[in-house]
Amino acid sequence: MRTSDGDSGRPSRPTLALIAAEAGVSTATVSKVLNGRTDVAPATRERVEALLRTHNYPGPGGGTRRTRRSGLIDLVLAGLDSPWAVEILRGVEAECAEHGTGVVVSLVRDDDACPPSWQNLPALHHSDGVILVTSRMTARQRDQLERAGVGLVLVDPVNLPAADIPSVGATNWAGGLAATEHLIELGHRRVAVIGGPADMLCTQARVDGYRTALEQAGIEVDRELVRYGDFHHESGFARTRELLELPDPPTAIFAGSDQQAMGAYQAARLAGLRVPDDLSVVGFDDLPTCEWLSPPLTTVRQPLEEMGRVAARTLLQLLDGRPPLTPRVELATDLRVRASTAPPPAAVPPPAAAPSAASHPPEDR
Amino acid sequence: MRTSDGDSGRPSRPTLALIAAEAGVSTATVSKVLNGRTDVAPATRERVEALLRTHNYPGPGGGTRRTRRSGLIDLVLAGLDSPWAVEILRGVEAECAEHGTGVVVSLVRDDDACPPSWQNLPALHHSDGVILVTSRMTARQRDQLERAGVGLVLVDPVNLPAADIPSVGATNWAGGLAATEHLIELGHRRVAVIGGPADMLCTQARVDGYRTALEQAGIEVDRELVRYGDFHHESGFARTRELLELPDPPTAIFAGSDQQAMGAYQAARLAGLRVPDDLSVVGFDDLPTCEWLSPPLTTVRQPLEEMGRVAARTLLQLLDGRPPLTPRVELATDLRVRASTAPPPAAVPPPAAAPSAASHPPEDR
Questions:
Q1: How many CB atoms lie under 10 A from the CB of residue A308?
Q2: Where does the HTH lacI-type domain lie (chains A, B) (predicted)?
Q3: Which tens digits make up the pLDDT trace of B192-243?
Q4: CA A152, CA B252: separation in Å to the nearest integer?
Q5: Cβ B10–A7 below 8 Å, yes or no?
Q6: Is A118's pLDDT higher than 70?
Q7: Are strands A129-133 and A151-155 parallel, antiparallel or unpaired?
Q8: pLDDT in tens, B104-126
Q9: Considering only CA atoms, which of A359, A345, A350 is closest in space to residue A188?
Q10: Which is higher by pLDDT, B3 or A125?
Q11: Which residue of B has its CA nearest to A296?
């Protein structure tokens, strides 16, 4: 909630409840108009906007450009422990700099319903809006932000956002499809996937793309080859070790992040396998470091910086009373083939005498 | 300069010039008191502080705790193109979060004297202070910040800061010494160094540590083996290629950053050399990625997150009117030995007949 301390100097504003009463709608509806949401009936929107204008309410949706911006938005990240975050930040910062807007960076410190840092976030300083990156948002948190009357845009939301909150992501499904098709085209039949957390939207989309690619190639999905981690090196390492210990291990791994792929490299090395001769590895993200790995990593590029830019642009437009045409934007992913993928090691051909028309010849390693 | 827009709601303040005139000192002196600098005579400081209190001036050094903080500081980075920056940011954010202070992150977009983004920085939003990371600061820029009346702390300043501006860094000289001693102890005699930009303080200190280690071991510094780059992968790659093409190439390289070290790995690989069997490599920074490289990188750890924390703590204390006891703090570096360093490839022993007591036997490769 916006504080009304001595610094603000703003004329005292009617509460949303008062405007709601005057308009004959719920407070939630006023919030929606204020935040530029699209799920409000046009007539209602007009009535509320008129009242907001009458009361000179400085909310984003009033149909009038806000003249008293704080000039600040909040970028709230789930963590700063990955180069991933800095790519998003770079895009947000670049876009905001062009619009004279400062970016306040903070972290969600607690996965709980309402961590104090998060709770106070819009109250600690004047902020026009929030970009929330890969966070799980509870209904309570959303209510809180609505009541704070600030704009909100999500980047890569963990769970399905309310339909009216704008969000920016990448074409994760298409990325999973492209990575897996690339491996199949190289001749791989035992292709494993290591996703991020199983309950994250982006993970689900990537794994579904993987499944579809296999199914389209007539390869049955082996549940043993579908694993989940947390996007960090360690989980890529641990899951790869498990996969390589299977009786019929994969010849290729599609990892959920470039960092997981680096973990896979390490596990392969310790198992005495060479990448890509013995094991192909595909990453996800295309961090700047990829081309400097040994071997340079084939990966699915997410336009992270551009995602940050689009999120910032969407938020700034929202604050100008211009809600996005579509609440969800997905930027295209793009497979970057480098040196970590190759045809699988030659399989021992099945004995010529064996008449069984097995579509999956056993592969010895 | 702090703007006095309608939002601020503050009583109009006397200019520094007025206070200076009343105190019978220069504006610069008032700025110094305001910013908690230590190079002001105690009697002068008291006189100025009294006037600042009388005028209820909200500057940091007034001897009174500021009651009207914006609750924001600016973290200004030279770039966001390295995982290095995110480590600093993590520390600054963590410390500030504990003090309910928001961190506005922005970049210096231009190396020019006064880039507009930088110029407007304290004016775009209310900010209590600035942490400036690895930037070159001109006298004009410093004046501007002084006039803005905000606190300033430097992290890893490029050039020598004014003695009264607090700065935080790492023991770069000791790091350079430890890295080079480690290589000498392994038996290396042809040790190269790739620094960052030659005019950066941290580079100079590291290269001096390198020189001292060699000299203490009785090894003459070969100028051919001292190269400079820009901390990025590319320069590590380019400089290593040049070094490996020398008639008498080094058997070990001390790189100026972990990213440069990754570039050195790549150059070694392309030259058909194995790390560490044919070429030892030491990095600098200890980014989280180091232990996931193949082979895991021996490197000099800079406590980057802690440097960020100390910078933030120093600034917040400065804003409370408590200037640091010493303007320059250097946090300890620490050599992390992993798998990228080993004894040099066995040198062909000099012919037994050669009687010259050469302290540098020629090493064939």
A1: 28
A2: 14-69
A3: 999 999 989 999 999 999 999 999 999 999 999 999 999 999 999 999 999 9
A4: 52
A5: yes
A6: no
A7: parallel
A8: 998 876 544 333 444 445 445 67
A9: A345
A10: A125
A11: B266
User: Which CATH architecture fits B16-68?
Assistant: Orthogonal Bundle (1.10)
Task: For residue B334, give both structure tokens.
Answer: 């620490």
**What CATH homologous superfamily does B172-303 map to?**
Response regulator (3.40.50.2300)
pLDDT of residue B290: 94
A53: distance to nearest CA of chain B, Å? 19
CATH of A172-302 given 3.40.50.2300, 3.30.420.40, 1.10.1790.10, 3.40.50.970: 3.40.50.2300
Q: What ipTM, to 2 d.p.?
A: 0.75
Q: Give the C-alpha separation, B133 to A87, whole Å.
A: 18
Which residue in chain B is spatially nearest to A6 when comparing CA positions? B9
CB contact under 8 A, B7 and A9: yes
Q: Quote the CA–CA distance of A337 and B334 in Å, as a whole number.
A: 37
Which amino acid, A220? Answer: E
Confidence of residue A357 (pLDDT cuts 50, 70, 90): very low
Strand bridging mode A252-255 / B298-301:
unpaired
Q: Do A93 and B83 touch (CB under 8 A)?
A: no
Of B75, B105, B125, the CB nearest to A71: B125
Determine which of B106, B125, B265 to mutate to test the interface with A (most A C-beta atoms within 10 Å). B125
CB nearest B266 (choices: A259, A265, A294) = A294
Looking at beta carbons, which residues of chain A come within 8 Å of B105? 75, 89, 93, 103-105
Average pLDDT over residues B26-55: 75
CB contact under 8 A, B93 and A107: yes
- Residues A210-229 have pLDDT tens digits of 999 999 999 999 999 999 99
Element (H, E) at B280: strand B280-285
- The segment with the largest mean pLDDT, out of A28-32, A78-82, A211-215, B130-134, is A211-215
**Nearest CA to A152 among A61, A46, A25?**
A61
Of A114 and A288, more confident: A288
What local confidence, expressed as pLDDT, does residue B125 receive? 67
User: A81–B288: do the CB atoms touch at under 8 Å?
Assistant: yes
| Chain A interface mutation, best of B2, B7, B74, highest count of A Cβ atoms under 10 Å | B7
